Prior knowledge:
Blueprint lengths: L5 E6 L4 H11 L3 E7 L3 H14 L7 E3 L2 H6 L5 E4 L3 H13 L3 E4 L7 H13 L4 E3 L7 H10 L8 E9 L4 H6 L11 H17 L7 E10 L8 E10 L5 E7 L5 E8 L3 E4 L11 E6 L2 E5 L2 E5 L2 E6 L10 H15 L5 H20 L6 E2 L3
Helix pairs in contact: 1-9, 4-5, 5-10, 8-10
Amino acid sequence: MTQRICRWGILGAANIARKNWQAIRLAENSTLTAVASRSQDRAQAFINECQSHVSFPTAPRAIGSYEELLAANDIDAVYIPLPTGLRTEWVVRAAEAGKHVLVEKPVGVTEADVDTMLAACTKHNVQFMDGVMFMHCGRLAKLRETLDDGTSIGAIRRIVAQFSFRGDEDFMRHNIRADAQLEPLGCLGDLGWYTIRLSLWAMKYQLPISVTARQLSAVGQTSTFPGVPTEFAMELHFAEGVTASNYCSFLTENQQWANIGGTRGFAHLRDFVLPFFGNQVTFDVTNAVFEHRVCDFQAEDRTRTVAVNEYATSAHNSQETNMIRNFAALVLSGRIDPSWGEITRKTQRVMDACLQSARQNGAVISVPA
């Protein structure tokens, strides 16, 4: 019996699309039919470069407009890595064309954008998912098992996460992530989306009651525009006193770590967004012990490493391939899973509240349930 295959199109030749080109090739339930750009020559150049590195048996065709790709009857799903400022229009148009949608993050400039996208996907009965790859890493399931075992971490009390990299002067001047029109959320959207998502995931998608935040630096400020965030800190306040501290920055050298602490121990991930190169993804669990005997004061580390056999990248079981495989499986099943859209909406809602707090000098902002 011939296996059914999800036929993909890529809407835009963004750099991150190269990674998902390979993921589509590695996922056994997927193939890439076409790539569209504003210029057919640019789309062809993208295809030529990627095909020379990771080849499909039949090279995808180059299309010179997004509209033409969406009109194609041999495409089931589209991956949309277009800038955030353009995403709402093209997600809606993809849904109207009956294409299932995997879209990059941050998904919208505001929650209203996300609502518009999800309404279109619901109306036209197509699957929606955002492109947060770590959600599809095998490590996350193992971490959930550890958080829920009652003894390793206990009840969660504190979550801390940082995602940052240092952009040089050229980055600040020319990269779209510092462009007020294309990526107005800057580091908050590009990096903070991940720290917020991890915090929500750890709390099983319970929304915080309130947030406080500060925009620590920005570019492009004017008398009427507070600028594109380049360094941002936020505090999420959950029920029963649980808190989460998130930091994201284009100014601080690369870090992507997270700590989830509880009443009995803590879990630490050194690389929760982009796993470090290797054939395992890991996290550490620490149940430190402090002993006091008269004049002896002794702290014992007692850390164990939990490992999952999964390649960091560029493999059949790496997280980006799992994402493509999982999305394609939903498409091929004919059953829509609305939970992915709800996760996106919650992430955007928290991000919006954090931005509102920062623009009100760190005011406490309630998060609607």
